């Protein structure tokens, strides 16, 4: 099975997925890291991990459809089976959604449907809730919507700073995302 990972920034989930799943010696290869941001640290991680990477963004194209058509062309050329979003900060449009129906997974740092959007950790922290968490879900046309695969809670202790909460959330992400992707790989790219 061939995987592509899409990311826009730091890439800690990308690294956790690649290192964890490579150790497990599954029938899977990481065939593409696609990044829409030229300065993203994830590009350096991809080079260090030997994952082929490309970087381009919608502004390099006439419109979003043309941008996604180029992504799709490359996904097909590389014979990608499953797309893993790991901090990809864009809405996936109909061009990719239709071609990869139920084959694009996302991770979000809150207990959806609470705190969707770009700042899931901070929004939960500032709202003063006692519990937040991590959600892994298939994507659809909405913002952080789509069928939920798994959620895990993270308690916010009164003494937690935002930075501590971020570390707690990321630790959960780095553990559960490889687990879920492993299950999907073993199941031929589908959910059970
Ligand atoms: C993660 O918190 C993920 O849930 C969200 O974006 C963040 C990406 O972090 N979608 P990283 O780039 O994997 O370090």
UniProtKB/TrEMBL annotation:
It comes from the Bacteria. N(1)-(5-phospho-beta-D-ribosyl)glycinamide binds at residues 11-13. Residues 1-180 form the Formyl transferase N-terminal domain. It catalyses: N(1)-(5-phospho-beta-D-ribosyl)glycinamide + (6R)-10-formyltetrahydrofolate = N(2)-formyl-N(1)-(5-phospho-beta-D-ribosyl)glycinamide + (6S)-5,6,7,8-tetrahydrofolate + H(+). Pfam families: Formyl_trans_N. NCBIfam families: PurN. Belongs to the GART family. Catalyzes the transfer of a formyl group from 10-formyltetrahydrofolate to 5-phospho-ribosyl-glycinamide (GAR), producing 5-phospho-ribosyl-N-formylglycinamide (FGAR) and tetrahydrofolate. This is Phosphoribosylglycinamide formyltransferase.
């Amino acid at each position: 099975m061939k995987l592509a990972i899409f990311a826009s920034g730091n890439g800690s989930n990308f690294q956790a997925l690649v290192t964890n799943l490579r150790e497990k010696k599954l029938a899977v290869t990481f065939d593409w890291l696609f990044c829409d941001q030229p300065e993203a640290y994830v590009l350096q991680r991809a080079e260090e991990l030997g994952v082929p990477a490309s970087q381009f963004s919608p502004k390099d194209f006439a419109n979003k459809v043309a941008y996604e058509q180029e992504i799709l062309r490359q996904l097909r050329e590389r014979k990608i089976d499953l797309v893993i979003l790991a901090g990809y900060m864009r809405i996936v449009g109909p061009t990719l959604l239709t071609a990869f129906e139920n084959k694009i997974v996302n991770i979000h740092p809150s207990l959806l449907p609470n705190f969707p959007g770009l700042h899931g950790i901070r929004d939960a922290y500032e709202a003063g809730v006692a519990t937040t968490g991590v959600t892994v879900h298939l994507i659809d046309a909405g913002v952080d919507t789509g069928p939920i695969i798994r959620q895990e809670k993270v308690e916010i202790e009164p003494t937690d700073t935002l930075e501590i909460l971020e570390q707690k959330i990321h630790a959960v992400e780095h553990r559960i995302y490889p687990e879920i992707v492993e299950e999907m790989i073993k199941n031929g790219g589908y959910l059970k």
